[in-house]
Specification:
Helices cover 36% and strands 17% of the residues. By secondary structure, the chain is α/β, with parallel strands linked by helices. A seven-stranded parallel β-sheet has the order 3-2-1-4-5-7-10, sandwiched between helices. A two-stranded parallel ribbon has the order 6-11. Strands 8-9 form a two-stranded parallel ribbon. This is NAD(P)-dependent oxidoreductase.
Length: 284
């Protein structure tokens, strides 16, 4: 599949702006949407509105044959819990349902490794095992994680209901340049800072590439995939970090050096995606 006209939600965001530019560079027509006025970018059409308005969402689908849904409240901070959950779950439902109704053939949805429940829990939690694959139990106890779990379930429903093929990408912290460098510096100064994230990251340029891979891959159905860089942000060995901060985690495979504790094999096998940026930028 090679979609020609792609809708990108959350287009004014950090990932969204990179996705729009990458799609345009690779010959796609882009319809973009966000709640704020259009930034300078690569979209052929930009519409401002609320993704909780079904009529607005339906209007976005005119001529679209694929969707990249990135819009969401990005963390469980700054909004009431119920608004975080309802905004994220409702918008994911409307975008995927309207895409299916309109006959779009493919959707890529931004999920998050936070769906596991480790990152934003009210207490320290540890993964049951590592490498952490997509089958790991979800331990969500915060509204953001729950909203991502709902989005993944909605993606599966949309495929069953409409036949649209959906790839849900579980992203870690995503950044490049100063944004990534600052996160790396904090992690290396004190790895406890990102212990709940398991020190994972992905360069924003690779996030854009994996979204395109999700649109083009010859697959059917609904798939949830980890999309991470192969190394951690820390400068310490991964096994050492896990032993210190997550001593109860079962190691099911060797994690030499700074290997990420998240499994990457399904994303590589299904999408043919291998990150190009394998070392985080520790300085601007």
């Amino acid at each position: 599949m090679s979609p020609r006209h792609v809708l990108v939600t959350g287009a004014a965001g950090h990932i969204g702006s990179h996705v729009c530019a990458h799609l345009a560079e690779t010959g796609h027509r882009v319809t973009a949407t966000d709640r704020i006025p259009a930034p300078a970018g690569a979209a052929d059409r930009y519409l401002t509105g609320d993704l909780r308005d079904r009529d607005f969402v339906a209007g976005l689908m005119d001529g679209v044959d694929a969707v990249v849904h990135l819009a969401a409240i990005p963390s469980p901070h700054g909004y009431p819990d119920d608004e975080i959950f309802t905004a994220n779950a409702h918008s994911a439902y409307l975008v995927l349902d309207e895409a299916g109704r309109a006959g779009a053939g493919r959707a890529v949805v931004a999920s998050s490794l936070s769906v596991l429940g480790l990152a934003w829990a009210g207490r320290d939690l540890s993964p049951a095992y590592a490498p952490v694959d997509e089958d790991h139990p979800i331990l969500a106890e915060d509204p953001y994680a729950l909203s991502k779990q709902a989005a993944e379930a909605t993606a599966a429903m949309a495929h069953r209901r409409w036949g649209i093929d959906v790839v849900a990408l579980r992203f870690p912290f995503v950044g490049t340049g100063d944004r990534l460098a600052g996160h790396v510096r904090r992690t290396r100064a004190d790895p406890a800072e990102t212990r709940r994230e398991l020190w994972a990251w992905l360069d924003t340029r690779d996030a854009a590439r994996v979204c395109l891979a999700g649109l083009r891959a010859p697959l059917r159905g609904h798939h949830v995939l980890n999309a991470v860089a192969p190394t951690t942000m820390s400068d310490r060995p991964t096994a050492e970090l896990l032993a210190k901060f997550h001593p109860g985690t079962e190691l099911r495979a060797a994690l030499p050096g700074r290997t990420t504790p998240f499994a990457m094999d399904r994303c590589a096998a299904l999408l043919g995606f291998v990150p190009r940026h394998t070392e985080p930028e520790a300085s601007p």
